[in-house]
Amino acid sequence: MALIEKNANLDASIGLSEANASDYIALLKPRVMSLVVFTGFVGMMAAPGQINPVLAAIAILCIAVGAGASGALNMWYDADIDAIMKRTSKRPIPAGRISRGEVLTFGLLLSAFSVVTLGLFVNLLSAFLLAFTIFFYAVIYTMWLKRSTPQNIVIGGAAGAFPPMIGWAAVTNSVSMESIVLFLIIFLWTPPHFWALSLFMSDDYEKAKIPMMPNVAGPASTKLQIFLYTLLVAPVGVLPWIMGFAGPGYGLFAIVMGCAFLASAFTVWRAPVGDAMLKPAKKMFAFSIFYLFSLYAVLLGEILVRKAFLVAGV
Amino acid sequence: MVTLTDKQKRAQRSRSLALALALAAFVVVVYVGTWAKIGANHSSQTAPVTRPAQ
Questions:
Q1: For residues A62 and A56, what is the distance between their CA atoms, to the nearest angstrom?
Q2: Which ranges does the record mark as transmembrane (chain B) (predicted)?
Q3: CA neighbor of A46 nearest in space, from A183, A214, A178, A193
Q4: A12 interfacial to chain B (CB closer than 8 Å)
C-alpha cells in the first residue's frame, strides 16, 4: 500500500502527463487567435507603404503566437473559475490534463519568443505594442479587472483591439489616426458583444463570482448600455470611409451593417427582462461576430482590389 | 523505474512531435527572416537617390 502511494507520488512529481499536442493548441484559444490574426492582417494591408512579404508573414505569425500566449496566461490564472463555469470547464487545466505550472511556462515562453522575434525581424514599435497587448490582457484584464469591476471588458477590450494597430505599425513603424480608428472599432464593439453573451450566460458568471454587468447592474441596465455602445460603434465603423482610407463600397456596407447592428441592439433593449430577452441576446451575440468580421473583410477586399489595380497600372 | 501507460506513451509521442515541428519551424523562420531582412536592408541602401529638378 505504502509502495503504491510512493509510486503514485513519484508519477505526479515527475509529471507523467497525458496531455497531447492538441491540449497545448487549445491553450492558445485558436478561435480568438483567428480573429486576432485576421484583424492584424487587415491592419497590415490597410497601412500605406510596403513590407517584405516574408517579414509580413513573420509579423502575422508573431501576432498569432503572442495572442495565443496571452490566452495561455489567461487560462493559467483563471483555472479556478474556469473549473466552475460550464463553458470553460473542459479546458486543459480544469480537466486535469495539464498542470498550471506547465501552462505558465508555456505562456511566458511563447510571449518572449513572439515579442523578441517581432522586434528582431520587423521593428521595435510593433514588438512593443505586442508586448503591451500581452501584458494588458494577462495582467490588467485577467489578473486585475476581470474579478474586480463590471467594467472589466470595457477596459479589457483594448487588448483585443490592438492587433490591427500592431499590423499597421509593422509596415509603417508608426501609430496614426487610421490605425487608432481600426483599434476603436474593435474596442467599442467589445462591450455590446460580451454583454450580449453575458445576458444569456449570467448564471455561469454568477457561479464563478465574476462581476459581469448583468450580475452587478442587472439585465435592464445592461441592455441599455449594449444599445448605447452600439450607438457609438456604428458611426465609428464608418470612419475609415470618412477619413479616406476606405472607399464608398466599404462606407455603404458599414452604414448598412451599423443600422442592422443597432436594430439588433434595439430589439435586445426593448425585450422584457427574463427568458424573452435570451433569444434576441443570442441573435445579437452571433450578429456582432458577423458584424466585425464582415466589416474588416470588406475593408480588406477593397484594399486588395485597389492594390491589384495599382499593380496593373489602371 | 517508471513505466508509462499506453496513453502516456501516445501523449508523449504527440508532444515530442509537436515540439520538434515547432523548433524546426522556428529555425526556418529565423533563416528565411534573416535573408529577407538582409535583402530589405540591402535594397534600401542601394535604392537610387532622386535628385530634385534643376
A1: 10
A2: 17-36
A3: A178
A4: no
Cα–Cα distance measured from residue A206 to residue A51, given in angstroms and rounded to the nearest whole number: 47
Residues of A in contact with B39 (CB under 8 A): 52
The minimum CA-CA distance between A10 and chain B, rounded to whole Å, is 9
Whether the CB of A14 is below 8 Å from some CB of chain B: the reply is yes
Q: What's the mean pLDDT when you consider all of chain A?
A: 92
Reading phi first (left if > 0) and then psi (alpha if -120 to 50, else beta), residue A244 is in left
8 Å CB contact of B15 and A24? yes
Give the pLDDT score at A53: 94
Dihedral (CA of A219, A223, A228, A232) sign: positive
Of A18, A21, A55, the CB nearest to B7: A18
Does the reported pTM lie above 0.80? Answer: yes
CB A116 within 8 A of CB A99: no
Interface with chain A: mutation pick from B27, B32, B38, highest number of A CBs within 10 Å: B32
Q: Please determine, for the modelled complex, whether the ipTM score is greater than 0.90.
A: no
- pLDDT grade for B46, boundaries at 50, 70 and 90: low
| Average pLDDT of the segment spanning A25-53 | 94
CATH class of segment(s) A19-175: mainly alpha
Nearest Cα residue in chain B from A14: B2
Closest CA to A80 of A148, A23, A143, A134: A143
**pLDDT value, residue B54:** 45
